[in-house]
Specification:
With 312 residues, the chain is of the alpha/beta class. It is 44% helix and 17% strand. The protein contains twelve helices and nine strands. About 2% of the residues have low confidence.
């Protein structure tokens, strides 16, 4: 453990505009025993050309394209990068975000100085498209020991961005799978819910160690501008899987049940009646008593039917 290898894992799709800056922030790390594995999701811009130049410049950069037999998307790229990695410690990083130069060193020093820890979480600052350093994200309360991290992950009071933790590889190997490749939106919450359900030992470094870029074309920016209906179509599966994970692992407490009832009722109201998710949610919610009142699901269904035939 004197000089352990750290694997920095980056999924990329069409981020050529910011990719050099991201990779330069990896090169600038004060801790130097790292490998950086980048999995490109078949970008249509000049990302691959940039990646080849960095791989030629420094052998610690190892580049791959997502295998054709894996689902398109960041989740498969993150999982494949982990499969190709060799480090004792793992840190994911998005291809348009930045690390401060001491990010890996500070997290690693804390992690290896306390053998009981499973991972260390850094803090985060927002970054706009011009690389201007903005405010620390206010909703992160990782230093509040009174917050239940599982419930906090689903209600947003304990949000953890994917790039913040430095994990022990041995901890991640306890999972049957890491990122759910079926989920398009909400994979972060689904993943970290499973992480915290294992009751891990972790610590938080309050310094702003990671810069999170939010632009209009970023996935976060696009989702924020989407309608409620679009958001619910995209993130329904993640919420469903989170509910199943919690119920299976420890059972649903009253606070969680109230949260899920509110969330599932809202989704049923906004989802189009002809969508597969509407009917999946209707039967799932009925089975698990996730509607407000005994006949709430049937009432919503009736309203949706009447609206679809323009009777109301």
């Amino acid at each position: 453990m004197h000089n352990p290898l750290v694997s920095i894992l980056i999924p990329n799709y069409n981020k050529a505009l910011y990719l050099r800056e991201t990779l330069d922030s990896v090169l600038a790390q004060t801790y130097t025993n790292w490998e950086c594995i980048i999995v490109d999701d078949h970008s249509t811009d000049n990302s691959w050309e940039i990646l080849e130049k960095y791989a030629q410049k420094d052998s610690r950069f190892k580049i791959f394209k997502r295998p054709e037999n894996r689902k398109k998307g960041g989740n498969a790229a993150r999982n494949y990068a982990f499969e190709k990695s060799e480090g004792e410690f793992i840190n994911w990083l998005d291809s348009d975000d930045l690390l401060l130069k001491n990010t890996i060193e500070e997290k690693l020093n804390l992690l290896i100085s306390n053998l009981i820890l499973d991972f260390v979480i850094g803090n985060i600052r927002k970054l706009n498209s011009s690389s201007k350093n903005l405010e620390i994200v206010p909703k992160i309360r990782l230093d509040d020991k009174n917050i239940d991290p599982v419930f906090g992950t689903i209600n947003g009071t304990f949000w953890v961005q994917t790039s913040l933790p430095l994990f022990k590889r041995s901890f991640l190997e306890k999972f049957n799978f890491l990122f759910n490749e079926e989920i398009l939106i909400g994979q972060e919450s689904e993943f970290f819910t499973r992480v915290f359900l294992k009751k891990p030992f972790f610590e938080h470094i309050p310094n702003a160690l990671h810069l999170w870029r939010i632009t209009e074309s970023s996935k976060t920016g696009i989702v924020r501008k989407s309608s409620f209906r679009r958001k619910y179509l995209l993130n329904y599966l993640a919420l469903k899987m989170i509910y199943i994970n919690i119920k299976k692992t420890r059972g649903i407490n009253k606070h969680e049940r109230l949260f899920f009832r509110n969330a599932f009722n809202d989704k049923l109201l906004f989802l189009p009646i002809w969508s597969k998710n509407f009917w999946d949610l209707f039967f799932f919610g009925t089975k698990h008593n996730l509607f407000k009142g005994r006949f709430q699901g049937a009432k919503i269904l009736g309203i949706k039917v009447l609206k679809s035939v323009k009777l109301i």
